[in-house]
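Dissemination and training. As part of the outreach component of the grant, students in the summer workshop were shown how a complex can be specified as a set of sequence lines and then modelled as a single object. The example used during the hands-on session is reproduced here so that future cohorts can follow it. Participants entered these lines:
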Amino acid sequence: MDRKRTALTVAAAGTAAGVAGLVLIASPAGADETPPVLPPVSAEALVQSVIQADVPALAGAVELRNDIGLPIPGLPQATGDNVARVYTDGNGRGRISLKQGSGERTFVQDGTTTWLWNSANRSVTKFTGGEDKDGKDTADKLSDPATAAREVVELIKKDSTVAVDGTARVADRPVYQLVLTPKPTERTLLREVRVSIDSQTRVPLRLEVLANGQSEPALRIGFTEFSTGAQDPALFTFTPPAGVKVTEGAAKDKGAKADQESLFKSANLKIVGEGWDTVATGQVPAALLSAQIPQSGERAAADVTSLLKRLGKEVNGPFGTGYVISTKVGTALVTTDGRVAVGAVPQQVLIDALGQK
Amino acid sequence: MSGLTEQGAAAVGTAAARTKGLRKVYRGTVAVDNVDLEVPTGAVLGMLGPNGSGKTTTIRMLLGLVTPTAGEVELLGQKMPDGAAKALPEVGALVEGPGFYPFLSGRENLLRFGAAEPLLATADIPNAVGTAIERVGLTAAAGRRFRGYSLGMKQRLGLAAALLVPRKFVVLDEPTNGLDPAGTREIRTIIADLHAAGTTVLVSSHLLAEVEATCTHVAVLNQGTVVAQGELSALLEAGSASLLVTTPEATAAVDALRDQRVPARPTPEGVRVDLTATTAPAVVEVLVRAGVPVYEVRKQRTGLEDLFARLTEASSAADLAELDTLITEEAR
Amino acid sequence: MSTLVVRRAPITRVLRSELRMVLRRPRTLIGLGLLALVPVLMGIGIAIATANGEEGGAEGLAALVIGNGMLLPIFALSIAMAMLLPLTGAMLAADALAGESAHGTLRGMLMAPVGRGRLLAVKAFGVASVTLIAVLLMALTGIISGVLLLGGDGMLTASGTSLPFLDALGRVLITALYVTLQVWALAAVALAVSAFTEHPLIVVVVSLGLVIVSGVLAAIPALDWLDPVLVTTSWDAVSEVVRDPIEWGPLVEGGLRALCYLVIGGSIAYSRMLTRDG
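and obtained this result:
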């Protein structure tokens, strides 16, 4: 029957077109493109150009992809999600919008003031005053890009192999891929760190962390959209909405800093080793381990120890008893007496680090 | 082929509707098989058949509502269902009970269907609706919601929808369903009017008296096939396969005939002789030879009911074949 | 007799008649009325909660809508998007083919004749228009009750900026159009189901089943690769509308996804209409 054949053809064609469309929408544009041809560049020169480069006026969307094998509250899981939009006018004014569900946290630096807006509780926090000192120090250090680049590369080269590994496209822009590979002597879980650098502006567009035995990056943060050019100046101003109370941020911040410092002191923070197998060890108050922590959602609160038991596995050794939490990119060891060791390393390195104490 | 083959052959191009080798299978069940139906232009064809004989399925295929599994349908010279856009504007139909929106009034329902009628100019719709309502005698109830209509009123509204526009061909599936005797009479009048105006009408019915009273042609369906069709008078002729002999010596007459293996039986009116295996002159000859006084010999007009009963009860293939030959011969 | 030519009733006349009929259907009217009430009830609820000082605990749009009346229609639409509007779309689609088939009115249209393709187009038009009317009605009652009950001139966006009234109105309109498109996508699938059956309830159950199953699949991390083809994936993107500046990416992607579903549903429905027994 002709009509039947027409009907089947229409149904098949329409369904195929629709499904193909659905799949196409999902696949990133230009994923299969051949890498762009760019003039060759050495790793040093690339790093130097990055340090030297001024960030131009730009707008972009940042995606975070996390596949480290441990659910982290607040971070999106394996699928990529745009988590932030970034705008800057290239002259120190900028705006970052962090998505939080259907709400948003917005940071606006309008040149003199930094505004922090949180839609969840409709609060505005205001930080006035110039740039902080640490930033200036860094800026001074970076004033000689060539030296800085050499220093940076030297530093990295101590433990890693640095190379420019071809080109690629990120956010539809041609990029150089700078790859840092740990030297074979490094006892680390990581295989390589890959930084994609925009060939034109020399702005790093993407950072990927690849773990041993994984073909997909365990962690990836980078632009999905990136465009340079003058931005709407309105983006870099912020007027607190009517009826919203504005908190002066500076004073509170100092207090917080002091709190943090005392916490750091009590934590007895130490760095063991260097390079890729650096391990941070420290001490958490034993009380914390039995503290109740509020859980997101409807689940009942759980104390830290039971959470550790759930996430990690129990181990015994010269350090006593503890729990090991392993992810694809790092391992953490928490002993029952409150000692902590964290690093991008296998479990044994953590145990060794604790033993050095 | 059953029925008046030669008439069909002569009527090429003048049939309002025609099917050839029509077959419809619903999920393995054969609803209609090998139906060759012909509705001559200008005729009022009564479609007879017991429930489940395939009348409605045939009509639905005729109107392009259902695609046949096999076979061909021609409606007003157009191949269906592909020619629906050409043929159907000229066709009015009431099929499988009237379908209307329960929440709209009768008039609103007709206005809605009027809007879809290709032959109605937009400005003429209200008038056409008014006329149709009047014609089926629904004027009083036209403003009421269809939900509250009685079966008869629903049927009338369906008829009104079929008659919204002057048609070349009108198909009425069980039009008298749910109507009181007065309503039935009105339908009969409407059909007669349509016939007088030259409209071809196809009426399916299980009421034989209806068909006998209003139809010029008849098609009888049974178990999904046409078992007989043709002009009503010819069919009735053909169906009267008995002879009524008036004689004072009924017993002698029956004995004489039975000796010659001719089935006969005495009845209050006279001796009824079955003509299936013999002819009228032969019967008379037998009786005269036997010295039976014959006052009157007359072919018995059995009526449609008798014919129908015989056609539809003769379910075995042999019986059907026999009947077929009989009807064909007699029609000649 | 072979001189017959194709004749059709003027399409605008048929479309008008369809729309008039759908809007006379009691179920449609009740549905529209209930949908129009949703923003009003939400406005009252939020106003009472605010008066009692229960501001904490709210998240996302709910936190933002207090004292921010122009956000109420967007908030209400995004809430209705989860179930009420899909239900409305599915019901309309169910009545359009399955329901009419059960009443025998579809047969009447086919015999008029309205061609099968045109009949589907007419029915789809009816579903689409009433969906749009429902969404616009919700937007309207949302704006009115928002401004009256919650107050606020203009709109406070999730990014902390304040939009003047006209811009806020534009945002409401964008939301309405986006939501309508998403409901159309589901209704297209429902219409395809509707073309296969005579039981409207089956259509509603299958369509809402699709929504629920999509939601469940989306919630399973191991099946994340399925997300792009789920009809519900882009429904959350409505909240992009309240950012400033609007992030068009997710909205455009959602729109394209809806179009794909319209093509799929439409072609299957058309295919079935061609062969369906009237």
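The helical segments of chain A are 2-26, 43-52, 133-141, 145-159, 249-267, 286-289, 304-311, 347-355. Students were then asked to discuss how this feature might be tested experimentally.
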